[in-house]
Amino acid sequence: MNNTSIFIQTVIGGVGIGSLYALIALGYSMVYRSMGLVNFAHGSIYMVGTYFGIMWYAGLVMGLHVPYPIAFVIGVLLNGAFGVLLERILRPLAKLDLMFMLLGTIGLGYVLDNLFVIIFGAEGFAVRSPLPSMPLVILGVRIQPQMLLVIGVSAILMVALQLFLARTKTGKAMRASAMDRDIASAMGVRVNRMNALTLAIGSGLAAAAGILAAPIVYVNPAMGAAVGLKGFAAAILGGLGSIPGAIAGGLIFGVLEAISAGYISSAYTRGIAFIVVVVVLMVKPSGIVGEITVEKV
Amino acid sequence: MIVVESLHTYYGNIHAVKGVSFEVKKGEITALVGANGAGKSTSIKTICGLLHPRQGRILLNGEPIQKLEADRIVRLGVGYVPEGRHVFPVLTVDENLDMGAYHRSDKAQIATDRERMYETFPRLRDRRKQLAGSLSGGEQQMLAIARALMSKPQLLLMDEPSLGLAPIVVRQVFEIISELNKGGLTILLTEQNARSALKIAHRGIVMETGKIRFADTAKNLRENPVVQQAYLGVG
Ligand SMILES: Nc1ncnc2c1ncn2[C@@H]1O[C@H](COP(=O)(O)OP(=O)(O)OP(=O)(O)O)[C@@H](O)[C@H]1O
Ligand SMILES: [Mg+2]
After folding, report:
1. Does any ligand 1 atom lie closer than 6 A to the CB of residue B209?
2. Is the Cβ atom of B36 under 6 angstroms away from ligand 1?
3. In this predicted model, what pLDDT tens digit does every residue of A120-176 receive, in sequence order?
4. I need a surface site. Which of A77, A113, A203, B144 has the fewest CB within 10 A?
5. Whose CA is nearest to atom 24 of ligand 1?
6. DSSP string of A20-84, one letter each residue
7. Which residues of B touch A175 (CB under 8 A)?
8. How far apart, in whole angstroms, are the C-alpha atoms of residue A63 and residue A120?
9. Cα–Cα distance measured from residue A115 to residue B55, given in angstroms and rounded to the nearest whole number
10. B100 in contact with A at a CB cutoff of 8 Å?
11. Given ligand 1 and candidates B14, B157, B209, which is best to mutate, with the most ligand atoms within 8 Å of its CB?
């Protein structure tokens, strides 16, 4: 095994983890864009979504072991429905100061985390991958099949999201109401419904990330904290509120983390990636992509 | 068409509209004029449902609508052209027009109406795939008007349609407003440019610090010496 293959392997691993961060970052950015709300409960929503899917696959519900793809779809849909409920809970917070949003959403996150400790216990469990655990070897580069699944499914979801927002009437209305809430409602858009849909999509994507991650991480009710924070850092890195920014930010963050873990020390993984984020933001506070605003009055 | 009865609208503790009553008659242009901060925009926003009055009623063809949200009121046939245009900057011109027709489901008819808008506003046709935020102020105003028309309104509310536009564009905008009215559309517009507004309007309402000072035919207002001196820059 030569140095180049090790590097490529590291980068692929980083892209895989980065895709998960991107899916999480999208949730932060979309909700921020449409409701003006920074949702610090999002990490916990990721955890909830993971359970919503994995519980069917791992035999937590009446000993059932439904196939992974079906568990995936159930988890995404359940967490999407949960997102609609969240809109009702978060709606009053969106009108308040950042301080109240912070307290309200962090508080909500704690409630969810503890609720899941009560239901499923604090103890976590490992989940076996639906794919073979033997790594594939392509041109000397070893790749875990689950990692390919992570990258492939995440990519499909992100392309689908872009197409939905760009092409469909509802997607356009979501973008319009994020741009100008009042005017969109004067055009007949039910803005609260658009917000509910936004939270549903954000939560569904978080569930997708969690269910994809489950076979490579340890599933437990505290799993959302670190990932939630990294997803948020990725969203900020790309420019909070920007959809391409969330994707770019997630991927960059994941690759940075993998490289610093592989070449420097895994003990510093978290620190190094965050330091890079801080440095980037000092140079360009609006994030890498920033907000695309074409304004002329 | 629309009757406003002793309307009171607040922003928190700020009492912006203080007991305003007036009527907009079907087929007419009514101009709401007055200085900065008189409460013109607040009145318009209260009618289209973006603000809700603390007291008073708004009757659209006899039905009270003051409690309805904006997304319901547009479905009843009230179109809104906001002050400052407020086109959706990162949607294209085409998409902005489609947003205007958001509550309609007659797809084929929407496409026809969109083409008709491009006949009325040929400059927009050339820019239909362009982002609305990249248009000039005048073009954005045309787009804001066309977008509101796409909702097929029976009543059009226009807040300061001439604000910030070059004199030649102002003239065009007022011509378009007259044309729309001749085509049967009822219009309530606000203007700081009282002179131009009262030229095309049938009736005028002069507001001052949240209250109505004068309400009369546009002709009588144009000839009223007090109005002339305070609002038309005569004398
Ligand atoms: N969002 C707001 N919050 C608090 N006060 C407001 C708000 N908008 C308007 N006001 C106040 O309400 C009063 C009426 O404002 P309004 O915008 O209706 O005036 P206007 O006649 O449209 O003025 P202009 O000609 O400048 O557009 C003003 O005193 C204004 O300061
Ligand atoms: Mg105004």
Report:
1. no
2. yes
3. 999 999 999 999 888 888 888 888 999 999 999 999 999 999 999 999 999 999 999
4. A77
5. B36
6. HHHHHHHHHHHHHHHH----TTHHHHHHHHHHHHHHHHTTTTTT----HHHHHHHHHHHHHHHHH
7. 88, 90-91
8. 14
9. 45
10. yes
11. B14
Please tell me the distance from the alpha carbon of residue A224 to that of residue B20, in angstroms, as a whole number: 54
Q: What ipTM was assigned to the predicted interfaces of this complex?
A: 0.92
Q: SS3 of A225, please?
A: helix
Helix, strand and coil percent figures for chain B, each rounded to 5: 40, 30, 30
CA nearest A75: which of A91, A51, A98, A59? A51
- The class level of CATH for A3-283 reads mainly alpha
Specify the CATH number of the domain B2-84+155-231.
Answer: 3.40.50.300
* Cα–Cα dist A227/B44, whole Å: 47
Alpha helices in chain A (DSSP H): 3-35, 42-57, 68-94, 98-120, 145-167, 169-179, 181-186, 191-213, 224-238, 243-259, 269-283
Q: What is the pLDDT of residues B68-80, one digit of tens each?
A: 999 999 999 999 9
Judged by its nearest atom, the ligand closest to the C-alpha of residue B82 is: 2
- CB of B131 within 8 Å of a chain A CB? The answer is yes
